[in-house]
């Protein structure tokens, strides 16, 4: 990956933390996210880290934002000092010398959210806890395929109320090499508990690489062994709750064991951080009375091997657990590098030269419907100042192309719609194979049925060529989707609303007003539904996607300082794909990327774009003005329609992953409670911090964190306000200079 791209992404996403504040019945909870900076791994087993000053408080929960296809593991540390003052660095270092190093959270293999028990929390950002910085270490097993940039991270839920009990994590780790050709080999670790402050283990996590079959831990008090926990490390590597209350006191023996199978190895395998090595880790999360001394003031780690003390280790600690195929599938780490690879750029389909590609939709036969404008172009001469179309003749050529794809090979199956449209915009196909379209030129919404080679009109809603704001008119409607027995139309360039129709085109209700608050719009440009029957509205000039109920209540929004406009969005499983139509001002040379977030997080998780995006010396074709985006029903392909004048194209991307490996989400039930979804009332602001600190210096770091403590925004978004056009004196179009 080109370092210039990395640096540009950092500058766009400066301050590597996102924070959100809400007030609940009992306490104020702050959401604070530390993320990677749009990194693309350079090599196999690539370790990188980011740091940010800790905000004072008490961490009560963790939300991971990563996937095993991209990330091998993440470790979140609390440090007195980070290993580097640069904000971002390559290598395995985390905390600096001369201070404390505390593990706060660990994630791997698609582990879900973690919520701490009531009255238990990690103290951070206070003088007495020694945690002045958060450091997120991310391990990438292999480089990505294609032009992909990663923003994986962890969101902490931070309370300002001091709990009765403070939490900490103890790491048991072994360095014993594993001999080859053994069906079962044990690595053992033992330490004596030295403190007079009793500790109470309440959760545990296991971690090995591919050879691990079981990791367990017990403690011995007065000659009696008590299980702390045991788990198959090939399952999601979550912190599993301990069902009973445990107490470890001074002088008690704490021991852990890892069982490995090395039958497929012909050499000794060492313990280490690389993929060819192995690991033997048991993470014990415990709490202690907040009024007592910290039992491990410099961090808790156990790495000693005392064979004589393990002679009577319980047999249960060596016995394998029953197989759980569903957990192993959920935790699967792909051996194929994750990537989204540019597969084709189509300027013609079946010999037909594409006009501006305004809309895309898949039918039930998995064919792609391409809604283009043929020879017609939307420019400054298309409408008058009252949104009336000047050229009222319909487009004479077919504007709906029904296409089948096999890799980068295409077959044009049907060409439809000649003489029926004036300025195509949005298209959708429902489960009954009805086709719905929006026409911004005629200000209408229509329902169609494909009968052979003909496109038969079922009904048209709105008065042709007459824009308006009432129940019988639209003004440049943009998108349409169906949920249940209702249709949802974004209306659009003038009215800033969502109109709800029945399946016969009759008005039911509307919601939305002009503005930038939650539930308001500044040019709703596209609309799709998610797997749960909710809607995603692309709020173009507010630079966001609003995730809403069908009644118009906002669940979350996807917004970032990395873009200030969003033209189109698509949903597949729990991922949301978003594409801007214009680059950020001042960053035109970096091009445009597709951003991908996860439902329930409201944050960007990774981004991708055309091959060699942003590399001047190898510059290939780049997005011109992306207008629409859709994901194939199987999730294997992503298509982007481009309306750039003179460069209308259909971009085709292939999602690279192992055969038959569908996207795996964190919604599987794993026996640990989930954090609640982001509340729509959060007041959100970004804090991303990374290489830019090289320029800004440590002073800027301190200043940002002081601002956070005072409740201020750490990144001034005033420079990224959406461009506005006064509709009384001009217009907003797909391709106008005003955009």
From TrEMBL:
InterPro entries: 6-blade_b-propeller_TolB-like, Cu2_ascorb_mOase-like_C, Cu2_ascorb_mOase_CS-2, Cu2_ascorb_mOase_N, Cu2_ascorb_mOase_N_sf, Cu2_monoox_C, NHL_repeat, PHM/PAL
Ranges where the Copper type II ascorbate-dependent monooxygenase C-terminal domain occurs: 167-295
Parts of the chain that traverse the membrane: 682-701
Cofactor annotation: Zn(2+); Cu(2+)
The keyword Transferase is assigned to this record: no
Chemical reaction(s) catalysed: a [peptide]-C-terminal (2S)-2-hydroxyglycine = a [peptide]-C-terminal amide + glyoxylate; a [peptide]-C-terminal glycine + 2 L-ascorbate + O2 = a [peptide]-C-terminal (2S)-2-hydroxyglycine + 2 monodehydro-L-ascorbate radical + H2O
A GO MF label: peptidylamidoglycolate lyase activity
Name of the protein this chain belongs to: Peptidylglycine monooxygenase
The organism of origin for this protein: Caenorhabditis nigoni
């Amino acid at each position: 990956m080109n370092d210039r791209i990395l640096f540009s992404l950092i500058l766009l996403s400066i301050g590597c933390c996102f924070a959100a504040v809400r007030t609940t019945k009992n306490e104020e909870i702050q959401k604070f996210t530390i993320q990677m900076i749009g990194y693309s791994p350079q090599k196999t087993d690539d370790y990188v880290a980011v740091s940010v000053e800790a905000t004072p408080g008490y961490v009560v929960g963790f939300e991971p934002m990563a996937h095993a296809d991209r990330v091998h593991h993440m470790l979140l540390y609390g440090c007195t000092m980070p290993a580097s003052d640069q904000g971002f660095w390559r290598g395995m270092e985390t905390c600096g010398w001369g201070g404390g190093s505390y593990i706060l959270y660990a994630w791997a293999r698609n582990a879900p959210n973690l919520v701490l028990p009531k009255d238990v929390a990690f103290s951070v950002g206070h003088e007495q806890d020694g945690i002045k910085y958060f450091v997120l270490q991310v391990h990438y097993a292999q480089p990505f395929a294609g032009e992909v940039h990663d923003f994986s991270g962890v969101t902490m839920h931070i309370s300002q109320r001091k709990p009765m009990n403070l939490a900490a994590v103890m790491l048991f780790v072994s360095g014993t090499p594993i001999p080859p050709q053994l069906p079962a080999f044990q690595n053992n670790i033992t330490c004596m508990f030295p403190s007079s402050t009793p500790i109470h283990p309440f959760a545990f996590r296991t971690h090995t690489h591919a050879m691990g079959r079981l990791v367990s831990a017990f403690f011995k008090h007065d000659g009696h062994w008590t299980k702390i926990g045991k788990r198959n490390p090939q399952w999601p590597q979550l912190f599993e709750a301990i069902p009973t209350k445990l107490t470890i006191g001074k002088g008690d023996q704490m021991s852990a064991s890892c069982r490995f199978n090395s039958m497929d190895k012909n050499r000794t395998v060492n313990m280490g951080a690389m993929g060819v090595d192995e690991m033997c880790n048991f993470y014990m999360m415990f709490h202690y009375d907040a009024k007592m001394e910290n039992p491990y003031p410099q961090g808790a780690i156990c790495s000693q091997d005392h064979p004589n003390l393990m002679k009577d280790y319980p047999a249960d600690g060596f016995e394998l657990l029953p197989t759980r195929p569903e957990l192993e599938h959920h935790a699967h780490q792909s051996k194929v590098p994750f990537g989204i690879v540019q597969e084709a750029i189509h300027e013609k389909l079946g010999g037909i030269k594409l006009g501006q590609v305004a809309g895309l939709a898949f039918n039930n036969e998995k064919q792609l419907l391409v809604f283009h404008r043929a020879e017609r172009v939307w420019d400054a001469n298309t409408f008058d100042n009252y949104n009336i179309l000047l050229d009222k003749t319909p487009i004479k050529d077919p504007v709906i192309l029904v296409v089948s794809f096999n890799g980068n090979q295409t077959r044009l199956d049907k060409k439809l719609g000649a003489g029926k449209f004036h300025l195509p915009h949005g298209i959708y196909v429902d489960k009954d194979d009805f086709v719905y379209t929006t026409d911004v030129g005629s200000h209408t919404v229509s329902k169609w049925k494909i009968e052979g080679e003909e496109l038969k009109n079922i009904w048209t809603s709105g008065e042709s060529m007459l824009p308006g704001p009432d129940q019988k008119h639209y003004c440049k409607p943009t998108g349409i989707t169906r949920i249940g027995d209702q249709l949802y139309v974004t209306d659009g360039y003038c009215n800033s609303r969502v109109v709800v129709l029945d399946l016969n085109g009759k008005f039911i209700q509307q919601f939305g007003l002009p503005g930038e608050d939650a539930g308001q719009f500044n040019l709703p440009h596209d609309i799709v539904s998610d797997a749960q029957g909710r809607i995603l509205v692309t709020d173009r000039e507010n630079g966001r996607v609003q995730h809403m109920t069908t009644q118009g209540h906002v669940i979350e929004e996807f917004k970032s300082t990395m873009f200030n406009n969003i033209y189109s969005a698509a949903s597949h499983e729990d991922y949301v794909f978003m594409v801007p139509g214009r680059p950020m001002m001042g960053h035109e040379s970096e091009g445009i990327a597709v951003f991908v977030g996860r439902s329930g997080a409201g944050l960007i998780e990774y981004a991708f774009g055309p091959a060699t995006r942003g590399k001047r010396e190898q510059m290939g074709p780049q997005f011109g003005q992306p207008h629409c985006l859709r994901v194939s029903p199987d999730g294997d392909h992503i298509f982007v329609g481009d309306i750039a004048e003179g460069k209308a194209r259909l971009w085709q991307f292939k999602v690279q992953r192992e055969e038959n490996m569908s996207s795996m989400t964190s919604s599987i039930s794993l026996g640990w409670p989930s954090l609640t979804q982001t509340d729509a009332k959060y007041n959100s602001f970004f804090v991303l911090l990374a290489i830019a600190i090289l320029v800004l210096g440590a002073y800027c770091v301190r200043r940002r964190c002081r601002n956070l403590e005072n409740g201020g925004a750490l990144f001034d978004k005033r420079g990224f306000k959406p461009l506005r056009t006064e509709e009384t004196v001009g217009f907003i179009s797909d391709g106008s200079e005003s955009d």
